[in-house]
Amino acid sequence: MEKCRLLTQVYHDPSYPAKCPKREPVSALEVMAANPALVLLGAADAGKSAFAKQFLARVAAARLGEDEPLAGWPGDFVPLLLNVRDLGQVLERLELDDDKCRQ
Question: Can you give the residue ranges of every domain in the chain?
Answer without folding.
Answer: 7-101
